Automatic annotation (TrEMBL), chains A, B:
Protein name, per record: Cytosine deaminase
Organism for this UniProt entry: Bradyrhizobium erythrophlei
Any one GO molecular-function label of the UniProt entry: metal ion binding
Cellular component, GO annotation: cytoplasm
Subcellular location: Cytoplasm
Any single Pfam family the record assigns to this protein: dCMP_cyt_deam_1
Keywords: Cytoplasm, Hydrolase, Metal-binding, Zinc
InterPro entries: CMP_dCMP_dom (IPR002125), Cytidine_deaminase-like (IPR016193)
């Protein structure tokens, strides 16, 4: 298993845990030098926290960092505009996404700002997200402010 | 006192409270129909939370909202790229900023995405932020990932 597949599986575990507790199934892992610095998942339902998308919860749990220039962030779903802005602000050089089939559109903005975007097109990530959107369109639309 | 001056004074109170507890002095207030829905301030120092900029803490404290299309967000300092992305995602139509002297640069991106940006050029906001940057450049640079 490649590093990317290994850490995406960790992000998927976070997404699945969120799904199993009734939440939005997006998970994320922050990695530095092959070690996990933080991991998390969407907390809109679980903590009634509208800013806690998967990537945001992961970065919060990682705590204060002097720099992110030597990190990689993994996320099961292509980043929304909030998470895109955060990745750009924090100068995270690489984002590995599980998929951009169920949601996407900010990949080019990330690339325009110098971020390396790698799409794994992960069938498990696609299937879990599609299932949630089908089952709970109300929560999903709230989460992306649609 | 105009509505904008009134709510910016509330945001300033948040910023000042953060400064007085050793934190980054950026405060924010979310308003709907003349009523405060949420208010907050930067929590990097107080909660070791790197994603809790003033606007983000305010939006978190406001809790889940079905829509932000009828809201105005006030912030003592021009939004960084994270907060800019969040305002765009949440479709908040108007952001009133205290100042963009000490930090700025995302106003045009906000306007390009249809957000109305109003700069109050508030002397108290400018002075408090300048004082903090002078006193704690280490924390300030960490907060904007410089």
């Amino acid at each position: 298993m490649t590093d990317h597949a290994f850490f995406m599986a960790k992000a998927y575990d976070q997404a699945l845990a969120s799904y199993q507790s009734g939440g939005v199934p997006v998970g994320s892992v922050l990695v530095r030098g092959g070690e996990i610095v933080g991991e998390g998942h969407n907390q809109r339902v679980q903590k009634s926290d509208p800013i806690a998308h998967g990537e945001m919860d992961c970065l919060r749990r990682a705590g204060r960092q002097r720099s992110y220039r030597d990190t990689v962030i993994y996320t099961t779903l292509s980043p929304c505009m909030m998470c895109t802005g955060t990745i750009i602000l924090f100068k995270i050089p690489t984002v590995v996404i599980g998929e951009c089939v169920n949601f996407g559109g900010n990949e080019q903005l990330l690339r325009d700002r110098g971020v390396n975007v790698i799409d794994l097109k992960d069938p498990r990530c696609i299937e879990l997200m599609a299932r949630f959107i089908r089952e709970r369109p109300d929560i999903w639309n709230e989460d992306i402010a649609e």
